């Protein structure tokens, strides 16, 4: 018999999660405002279900009561995904310095990975939840990992799920090989960002673009903001339906944005157009953007197929950078679609650029951007070559992962060996 008051349990843990989520979102927003890059890629949080809590108590032979709840240390969890290995130390230090957060235990699965190959830094912390008559400290597990580690963790989890937690020794060994690939990529990228950090970002001369930016700022953005919300809700609904139907979500995360006026000016200048509202409307096709990051290639194909068959949007352009990568190694599938926006007195079709990519492609694109943007376009040919080589390896990972899911093939150890060819320094 279960004697747990789940209403009280969830109230406290949800409050603790909101407090931490707000803290990390503030940190992320502050980093976005500065010249330095934002080391936080995204944040995920969750609370264990009633069934999961009860099963864990039973597994450890605890009675199902309120008193034993404290013996479960990950009822509430928050995951912070960083860009590079160095960023994990930075986030941990921010947590240590926060007076509201008390660190209870630390598990370093980066220096000492789990047997499966899992890598992440775990901090179990307590945060104050203020109730009407008292302040109670509630435990939350914080996981901090790189985007590469998160890619591996997603693969490992979904491989187990798709195979009903039963996988062959061959597949298990393949997963371990994949963790070796991820660790090597993380180290290579860490060396590269350390080298890139020696370059100072050229400060934006706001006065230079002030007049031109003011032209763009006159444009009413309501219809673009509504289009962003409509397409985001559509993708979230697709993901929800597929997660219910298939039992697992095919989408890792979704990002949306409306292009900033300063970036619109820069792009028009790059395309050699005058800074006018008409040129913005006619030649900027990614004013509204949404990025859909899927787990695997098969998930990407499924999402792409659903969108292409959706009669509520009109696909006007397709660019397949997966079969035909950009010169720098960038891979993604782009759809430009017209999204109908119902205003009070009219219906307007607004163009939205939809990027669909795997978490592996997103990892590469994110890290490549953050490595190269400091150099203001002055990228050494050696750096370009090595980033293209890593892009090719990441592409092979995607294909091999899909084979291991759909055909139960092993992750080829040749992919691991190719990384040995990439120098870690002087990229």
Protein traits:
10 strands, Beta Polymerase, domain 2, 49% helix, five-stranded mixed sheet, alpha+beta, 13 helices, 427 residues
Overall body shape = globular
The N- and C-terminal alpha carbons lie at a distance of: 61 Å
Please indicate the count of domains: 2
What is the third-level CATH name, the topology of the largest domain?
Beta Polymerase, domain 2
Label the structural class: alpha+beta
Percentage of residues in DSSP E strands: 15-25%
CATH class of the largest domain: Alpha Beta
Helix proportion: 40-55%
Mean pLDDT: 84
Biggest β-sheet, characterized?
5 strands, mixed
> How many helices does DSSP assign?
13
Low-confidence segments = 201-207
Radius of gyration: 23 Å
**CATH architecture descriptor name of the largest domain:** 2-Layer Sandwich
Order of helices and strands: HEHEHEEEHHHHEHHEHEEEHHH
By DSSP, the count of extended strands is 10
The CATH homologous superfamily name of the largest domain equals Beta Polymerase, domain 2
- Order of adjacent strands in the largest pleated sheet: 1-2-5-4-3
Structural commentary:
With about 425 residues, the chain is an alpha+beta fold. The protein has helices at about 5-35, 50-60, 85-95, 145-160, 170-195, 205-215, 220-245, 260-270, 275-285, 295-310, 360-370, 380-405, 415-420; strands at about 40-45, 75-80, 100-110, 120-130, 135-145, 250-260, 290-295, 315-320, 335-340, 345-360. The chain contains 13 helices and 10 strands. Residues about 200-205 have low confidence and may be disordered. It folds into 2 domains: about 5-150, Beta Polymerase, domain 2 (2-Layer Sandwich); about 205-375, 2-Layer Sandwich (Beta Polymerase, domain 2), CATH 3.30.460.10. The longest helix is centred in the first third of the chain and has 28 residues, at about 5-35. The strands form 2 sheets. Strands 1-2-5-4-3 form a 5-stranded mixed beta sheet. A 5-stranded mixed beta sheet has the order 6-7-10-9-8. About 50% of the residues lie in helices and about 20% in strands. The radius of gyration is 23 Å and the shape is globular.
């Amino acid at each position: 018999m279960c004697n747990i008051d789940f209403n009280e349990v969830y109230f406290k843990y949800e409050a603790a999660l909101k407090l931490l989520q707000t803290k990390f979102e503030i940190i992320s927003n502050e980093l976005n405002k500065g010249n330095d890059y934002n080391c936080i890629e995204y944040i995920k949080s969750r609370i264990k279900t009633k069934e999961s809590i009860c099963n864990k108590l039973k597994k450890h032979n605890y009675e199902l009561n309120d008193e034993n709840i404290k013996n479960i240390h990950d009822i509430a969890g928050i995951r912070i995904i960083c860009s590079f290995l160095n960023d994990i130390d930075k986030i941990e230090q921010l947590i240590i310095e926060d007076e509201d957060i008390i660190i209870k235990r630390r598990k370093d699965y980066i220096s000492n990975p789990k047997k499966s190959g899992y890598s992440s830094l775990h901090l179990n912390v307590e945060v104050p939840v203020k109730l009407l008559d008292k302040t109670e400290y509630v435990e939350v597990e914080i996981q901090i990992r790189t985007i590469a580690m998160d890619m591996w963790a997603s693969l490992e989890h979904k491989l187990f799920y798709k195979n009903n937690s039963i996988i062959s020794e061959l597949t298990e060994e393949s997963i371990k090989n994949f963790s070796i690939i991820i660790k090597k990529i993380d180290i290579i990228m860490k060396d590269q960002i350390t080298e890139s950090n020696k370059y100072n970002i050229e400060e934006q001369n706001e006065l230079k673009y002030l007049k031109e930016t003011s032209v763009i700022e006159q444009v009413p953005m309501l219809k673009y903001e509504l289009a962003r919300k409509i397409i985001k809700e559509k993708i979230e609904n697709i993901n929800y339906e597929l997660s219910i139907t298939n039992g697992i979500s095919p989408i890792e995360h979704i990002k949306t944005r409306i292009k900033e006026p300063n970036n619109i000016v820069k792009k028009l200048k790059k395309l050699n157009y005058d800074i006018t509202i008409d040129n913005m409307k006619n030649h900027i096709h990614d004013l509204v953007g949404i990025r859909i990051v899927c787990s695997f290639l098969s998930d990407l194909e499924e999402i792409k197929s659903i969108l292409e068959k959706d009669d509520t949007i009109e696909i006007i352009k397709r660019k397949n950078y997966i079969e035909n990568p950009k010169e720098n190694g960038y891979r993604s599938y782009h759809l430009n679609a017209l999204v109908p926006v119902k205003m009070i007195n009219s219906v307007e079709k607004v163009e939205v650029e939809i990027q669909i990519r795997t978490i592996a492609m997103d990892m590469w694109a994110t890290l490549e951007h953050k490595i190269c943007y400091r150099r203001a376009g002055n990228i050494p040919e050696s750096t370009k070559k090595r980033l293209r080589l890593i892009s090719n390896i990441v592409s092979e990972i995607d294909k091999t992962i899909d084979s291991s899911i759909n055909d139960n093939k092993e992750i080829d150890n040749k992919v691991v060996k190719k990384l040995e060819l990439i120098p870690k320094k002087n990229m």
